[in-house]
Amino acid sequence: MEVEAATQLGKFIGAGIAATVALAGAGIAIGNIFGSYLTAAMRNPSAAQGQFANLLLGFALAEATGLFGLVVALILIFVV
Amino acid sequence: MSSPDHGAAAAAEGGFHIDPMHQFEISRIIPLEIGGIDASFTNSALWMVIVAVTATLFLTLSVGASKSRALVPSRAQLVSEMAYEFIAGIMRDIVGPSGQKFFPIIFTLFIFILLCNLFGMLPYAFTPTSHIIVTFALASVVFIGVTLVGIFKHGFKFVKLFIPSGVPVWLLPLISVIEVISYLSRPISLSVRLFANMLAGHTMLKVFAGFIVSLGFIGGGFLPFFFAVALTGLEVLVAFLQAYVFAVLSCIYLNDALHLHDH
């Protein structure tokens, strides 16, 4: 019974760490992308519109890496 | 996550038990079993049929009906033409003229995913794209199709995709292994991105909706209410963005297979 409880505890701690660390990384990445875009757009506003598609693409890619952490957390809780 | 005894305890206290994961449950509408394989018509299948029928009817009726096809378009025709022009523009920018014959599959994928995501925002609706098996099937179609296109077009030279030009020879064993791994992980990242976005967004909406109920609207519940309204707007944006990203990444993969890094 104690082993079971310890396993459960480990799962929850692992899931929490997975979700939080991934979230921190995704937060840094998304902030970086939009910050860089704004800096560049302020320097050359005429070229900003053309890079909007790349901005969204980069945002989605960065966000996805954060969501992989969520998937790891879900796997830890529900599957393992 | 909510264990049954926890839910029973909440119900016994007279509280209102909220399960944010309940919306993702699949239920059989028409049970059907073929050769030991469960092929039931589920609520997921129902919503996919609704999406497919809506998209087909809308796109054909708004543009296809010969009477209504006008030089100055009606509103419905304008929406269809905008969607067409949007994807055609992406394909022109990324793949170039040689990719135009693959336009139908990319357009179909985009419209299907977009409508699945947007219909999922309706109350009591089911989001088929919130299940990884659905998104993985879509991503597999893209991955296998793109690989076959590359092999048929280039034959054995398709291996060049895994050997970037301008890399020192002594680095090639390492680089090509990394390229192969990154190529094989494409369907996983493509499907997990869409699935996880839908799952996380809808769960978050339900969690905040639960806060409104448990706090009571007057007793502080108006704060999560306004947050939920803003989140709904964000989710509509994400629904569009994920469909767009899926289409763009499919185009990038297609471009890789057609042109093998050299532009």
Number of strands of chain B: 4
Question: Could you tell me how far the N terminus lies from the C terminus of chain B, measured between alpha carbons in angstroms?
Answer: 49 Å
> Strand sequence of the main sheet of chain B, in spatial order?
1-4
Number of domains of chain B: 1
CATH topology of chain A: F1FO ATP Synthase
Largest sheet of chain B, if any? 2 strands, antiparallel
CATH second-level architecture of chain A: Up-down Bundle
Mean of residue pLDDT values of chain A: 88
Distance between the termini of chain A: 17 Å
Strand content of chain B: under 5%
Q: Percent range for helical residues of chain B?
A: 55-70%
Whole-number average pLDDT of chain B? 85
Radius of gyration of chain B: 23 Å
Report strand % of chain A: under 5%
Question: Which class do the helix and strand fractions of chain A yield?
Answer: mainly alpha
Oligomeric description of these chains: heterodimer
* Rg calc of chain A: 19 Å
In N-to-C order, the SSE pattern of chain A is HHH
In which range does the helix fraction of chain A lie? over 70%
Which runs of chain B of at least 5 residues are low in confidence (pLDDT < 50)? 1-15
Quick description:
The complex is a heterodimer of chains A (80) and B (263). Chain A is an all-alpha fold and 80 residues long.
How would you explain this protein's 3D organization?
The complex is a heterodimer of chains A (80) and B (263). Chain A has helices spanning 2-43, 45-48, 52-79. With 80 residues, chain A is mainly alpha-helical. Chain A has one domain: F1FO ATP Synthase (Up-down Bundle). Chain B is mostly helical and 263 residues long. Chain B has one domain (38-259). Helices cover 67% and strands 3% of the residues of chain B. In chain B, the strands form two sheets. Chain B has a two-stranded antiparallel ribbon. Chain B is globular. Residues 1-15 of chain B have low confidence and may be disordered. Chain A binds chain B through residues 53, 56-57, 59-61, 63-64, 67-68, 70-71, 77-78, and chain B through 1, 90, 93, 189, 192-193, 196-197, 199-200, 241-242, 244-245, 248.
